[in-house]
Design brief:
Strand content of chain A: 15-25%
Oligomer: homodimer
Radius of gyration of chain A: 20 Å
CATH superfamily of the largest domain in chain A: Nucleoside Triphosphate Pyrophosphohydrolase
Shape of chain A: elongated
Structural class of chain A: alpha+beta
Number of strands of chain A: 9
CATH topology of the largest domain in chain A: Nucleoside Triphosphate Pyrophosphohydrolase
Order of helices and strands of chain A: EEEEHEHEEHHHEEH
Helix content of chain A: 25-40%
Number of helices of chain A: 6
Number of domains of chain A: 2
Distance between the termini of chain A: 42 Å
CATH architecture of the largest domain in chain A: Alpha-Beta Complex
Largest interface: A-B, 21 and 21 residues
DNA sequence: TGGCATAGTGTAAAATTGACACAAAGCTCT
DNA sequence: AGAGCTTTGTGTCAATTTTACACTATGCCA
């Protein structure tokens, strides 16, 4: 059951909701945080859905998205970007969906427009727990997802596309990695977001030429092979770079 | 006064509107179709605004945007793309704005979320006329716009940015030009969208290498200088190109 | 100590970019 | 008819970037 922080002097807007595509990276592939709606009354509708909720009349859209994210994961100050608004009148067409909506939302009958966001989090920062009040949430690899409740699958597709475009322009991928990471992990991350293989040497050359990574004098520990050097993202260097009008990472 | 096509069996949704950034190109610079709200009751609020309207409960967002566009210009089947949703609770904060809203919208008091679109039209296809029922609309060069009603200026900025990014990925600029155009006009168009000068020869080389233009055996007439060859956009060639996964026009 | 897995590295050919200047065509004006 | 104006259209060279490609180094494990 969602925990809704009812705000004093505010009302839920029954017509507008926010849904979040929360991306993670398990160092192998891109994942998304989905909630399991459990057994659905009538029939075999998709059980998984994006986390989301109606907005309050006194918060703006970004705030609402941050709230949804914080209510589910407890995380704050997370990279968040709007994907767009989705609003087919028949978005919620299944009787069973309506039933379920009653459990988390007011007025399941109303036509709802949803504003989708995507966010990038370090998977390690949120470990879903069955016992959590944030109901049954779980990290699911994106390419294992073939259906979702409502129009959430469509939203996911657009979020992926937006992320793909965005990462060609800004190095936002670091938000998905631990502070310290290896070039191979970064490489793998780019491959899974862009959904195509990238030549190892060419990738390393290009990323290093950008000069936005700080090499640490530290190696991986406990891996059953040659340990890799660890790097971290250098915010200052990146600022310098963008100051020059640079906006093309060209992958 | 807006002409609202009341649809049978449908209701206006008082919480959600659509606003359109309608781009044109006067062969010199990028322009936007704005409506003049006329004398504003109290004080000197910006008079110009983006065309927009509330949505009906039985139409989806794209339909609503197309409707707004058609109601104002009579044009259909126009390139249209969502910019995003805008929804600060205090979006409509001025008393005079509320007054004006009453003249075109139901429930001006409600908190309204707006979904912004941008569209690309051939300026020649819509000539604003003072006598038109579409009130006082006019093409205004984008870089002459410094303020707009509500949060419309912010919306315009984002629409420009979106267009800028999009044109690097897809050759949508042709929607702003007449069927037959010169390379100089196309050149000028890219410069005004990207907001930076492009070398003439390099631009021509690059655009021609894409091989998505058909050269016509036809020249400009009646220009007081060497007449240019005319070209048209070749949809089939472009399809071939995108089939190969090409998505980088690299300007 | 040998085997396994991944890290890390260089080069050469091809393609792309960026900088740059002048002759050609048609109109207008006298 | 000719001079002058305005914009079109064109090529090259150097620098940079991209692509394709394979072997050695390191540390763990058995």
């Amino acid at each position: 059951m969602h925990h809704i922080t009812k705000k004093i002097g505010s009302e839920l807007n029954p017509n507008v909701s926010v849904d979040c595509v929360i991306f993670g990276f398990d160092l192998e592939q891109l994942t998304v945080l989905l909630i399991d709606r459990g057994e659905i009354p009538s029939g075999s509708r998709p059980r998984m859905a994006l986390p989301g909720n109606l907005i309050y009349d006194n918060e703006n859209l970004d705030q609402a998205a941050n709230r949804v994210l914080a209510e589910l994961t407890g995380l704050e100050n997370i990279y968040l970007e709007q994907v767009g608004a989705f609003g087919d009148p028949d978005r919620i067409h299944k009787e069973s969906d309506r039933e379920w909506l009653k459990t988390i939302r007011a007025e399941p009958e109303a036509r709802v427009i949803t504003v989708a966001y995507f966010s990038l989090v370090q998977m390690a920062h949120y470990k879903p727990q069955a016992s959590s009040f944030a109901k049954n949430a779980d990290w699911i690899p994106v390419n294992q997802i073939s259906e979702l409740a409502f129009d959430h699958f469509e939203i996911l597709q657009e979020a992926k596309e937006k992320l793909k475009q965005k990462i060609k322009i800004q190095p936002i991928g670091f938000n998905l990695l631990p502070e310290k990471f290896t070039l191979s992990q970064l490489h793998r991350l780019y491959e899974s977001i862009l959904d195509k293989p990238l030549d190892k040497r060419n990738f390393r050359r290009k990323i290093q030429k950008l000069d936005i990574l700080s090499s640490l004098r530290e190696k991986q520990k406990g891996v059953p092979h040659k340990p890799s050097l660890l790097y971290e993202f250098n915010e200052e260097k990146y600022q310098e770079l963008t100051q020059t009008g640079f906006d093309n990472f060209g992958f």
